[in-house]
Structure formats: C-alpha cells, structure tokens
Amino acid sequence: MLPIQLFRQNKELILEGLKKRNFKEPELVGQIIAIDEERRRIQVENDNLAAAINAASKNIGQLMGQGKKEEAESLKAEVAGHKEQTKQLAEKLTALEHEQYDLVIRLPNIPHSSVPFGKSAEDNEVVRQGGIRPDLSAQKLPHWELTERYNLINFELGTKLTGSGFPVYIGQGAKLQRALISYFLNYNIDAGYTEYYPPYMVNEESARGTGQLPDKEGQMYHARDDNFYLIPTAEVPVTNVYRDEIVKESELPIKMTAYTPCFRREAGSYGKDVRGLNRLHQFDKVEIVQLVQPEKSYEVLEDMVLHVEKLLQSLELEYRILRLCGGDMGFTSALTFDFEVYSAAQERWLEVSSTSNFESFQTNRLKARYKDASGKTQLLHSLNGSSLALPRIVACLLENHQTPDGIRIPKALQSYFGGEWIK
C-alpha cells in the first residue's frame, strides 16, 4: 500500500508509475488526495474544538470557585455543544479514513526507475542467459509423454479424484518431488534462511497484508464458512509472521524459507501452453522471503537473484533472467526478475521463478517495522522469490535430461533422489 505522504508530496511520481503499469484508473489518485485534504481539514477543526473544550473546562472550575455559577453553567452548555460537534466530526473522520483506505488499496506499487515501459511479456528485457541447451534426438518426447512412459504422474487420475490441474505423482515421480523439495530447502538453509512450515490457509487479514486481496480474490480458493483462503504461495503466511511487529535493527536481515503446496483457481486456457505440468491449480513450491532495511533492499534483491541463478545452474538447465516491464509486473512489486528455463522438447521458455522487491508496499499494510540506531521506527522492505516452483522444473528436468536409456538425474540431486537415473 502506498503511503499517504507520497500522495501529498509527489502526486506526479504516482501518476507516472501508474502510467508505466498501464493502470486504468489514474483518477483514483485525485480522489484520494481530495479525501485526504478534507480529512485533514476536519481533523484541524476537531483539534481546535478539543482545545476549546479543554480551555473552557478550566474556566468552568475557576468560575465555580468564584461563585459565578450562572456563567459556569452557560460555559458548560457551550462545552456540551462542542462535544456533540466533536462526536460528529469523529464519525466523519472515521468514514473518510475508511473511504480513503478502500481507494488506496486498489492502487498497485510504483515501479522502480529501472522497470521498462511495456504492456505484456513480449516487452520484458532479457538480462542474461546461461546453461547449455541439450541436443536431443528427433525422438524427443514432451514431459506428459515421458511421465506416462515411466509411470511418474497420472493426470487422468488427478482429474478423477479432484479435477483438471490436480496431478497425482506416483513412484519415482513422487520421489523426484520429495527430492527437489528437500534439495531446495537445504540449499536455502545453507545460505542462512530459517525454515518455516506454515499453514496452508490464511485469514483475510493475512491475504490483504501481502496484497493478494483485493487484487487476486478471483484466483484464490476461498473456504467461505470460515473465511479462510488457501494460499497461492508460501509468501503469504511467511511474510505475515511479522505483521504488527517491531523488530530490532540488529535482527536484520530476516531470512525465511518454506515449502508449501500452492493453490490457484485461475489456470489459463486450453492447449499446449497449459498441457501437463505447464499450469496447475495445485503445485509445490519452495519460497524465500527477506525483510531488510530500506537502503539495503536492492542489494539484497541482487543477492537473491544470484542465489536462484546458482540453484538453476546446479540443475544443469538452460535458463534466462528477465526484467519485467510495467505491464507484466505483479500488483505488489516495485521490481521483478523472472527466471525461465528452456524446455527442449516443447522448444519454448517456461517461467520457474519470480524474484521481487516490494519495498514498503507490503510492510505498510502489515505494519512490519524496525527500530533504527537512533530509535526511530521505520517500515521494513520485503522481498521474496521462488526457490523454486516445481512443476515446470520437473517438466524441463524430464525433457532436457531424457536419453534412450532413461532420464538422467543431475549430480546435485542424485543423493536426494537416491540414484542417477529414472528408468
């Protein structure tokens, strides 16, 4: 959530940022400023009345002490009128604050200056590329055929049990999932992240705190009787650990990692782009989250990008890193780098991670703060990244490492999987 001070001090910065995002309701900025001016005007009026009440209350005591009862009673009646006015003004203030909040939370974060203009994924910038593209034979198979050949995943069974987008992993397929989760978690823990195992459902306040509500309400599974939401990512519960908390600067950076299944209703259209593991309603992901001082957040973002990049390198996959344009960025992000892995059988790039700096957009909603060396309380900056999302990683591992003799397991993963091959 953008701080209200920014609307007062730099309206043009907000409007320029919304333009970069192709935001369709820039008029909200003017409405928010108008409400804020009215709210501040009423607050001054209310403060003046409160001061008048205090002054009059002192005079009443003095008048009573001097035996001027009639004057004191007259002043009492005046005070009573002022109190009724302050009550009405307080009600107006509350209504304006709610109206202002409801408008502010509809605005996305302001993009960082390095974010390029653009409307869609076609306008994203390739930052760098690494890894080696495998030279597969003409008999190369897409992962949905490989999973059937080696009995790794049963998509039809998932449809029978639940519905489309809920695959069932079997035998070596389930073992590969478990191996990847353990490897990713240990990789993050070795880099100083503390592991969390959070709930898979959160309350409305948690979903609102990290920006999933109201932006992604239609994409989240909602348990209406309890008003709980199934998490779309571990970012939601993990970041909310520090909601309404004030930490010491000496505790920073706070580094957290977690594995959870993720649930997303919106799974795209039909066709090859969403076939097999390419897009699911339920999938596994290991997440990393950091809370840091504002002046360090972009240095930390760079470190997190390198962290994810080295993890992909260890899986022996060709990858590229993209800087997302304004039109393709998430609602809460100020700057996002996407990682894509090349699917050698499908001959296209698949997104496997997003690593973002949210600056104070989330922490302003969460009221996640720290005390600096001078004792001043400030908002933290929050960052997160997928490290990694499993479905498309599995798809690319199977496709890129397929051979006539089976599917080769990357060396870094072999001890977790308990073997070198899927056969």
Descriptive notes:
The protein is an alpha+beta fold and 423 residues long. The chain has 13 helices and 19 strands. An eight-stranded mixed β-sheet has the order 1-11-12-13-16-10-9-4. Strands 5-7-6 form a three-stranded antiparallel β-sheet. Strands 8-14-15 form a three-stranded mixed β-sheet, with no helix packed on it. A hairpin with a 4-residue loop joins strand 6 (222-223) and strand 7. Helix 3 (27-65) runs antiparallel to helix 4 (69-104) and helix 7 (172-190) packs across helix 13 (411-417). The longest helix is centred in the first third of the chain and has 39 residues, at 27-65. It is elongated and about 105 Å long. It starts with a helix and ends with a strand. The model has no long low-confidence stretch (mean pLDDT 95).
**Strands side by side in the biggest sheet:** 1-11-12-13-16-10-9-4
Task: Name the overall outline.
Answer: elongated
Would you identify the regions where 5 or more consecutive residues have pLDDT less than 50?
none
Strand count: 19
Helices and strands: which structural class? alpha+beta
Instruction: List the total number of helices.
Output: 13
Indicate the radius of gyration in whole angstroms. Answer: 27 Å
User: What is the helical fraction, as a range of percent?
Assistant: 40-55%
For the termini, the CA-CA separation is 51 Å
Return the average pLDDT rounded to an integer.
95
Largest sheet: 8 strands, mixed
Strand content: 15-25%
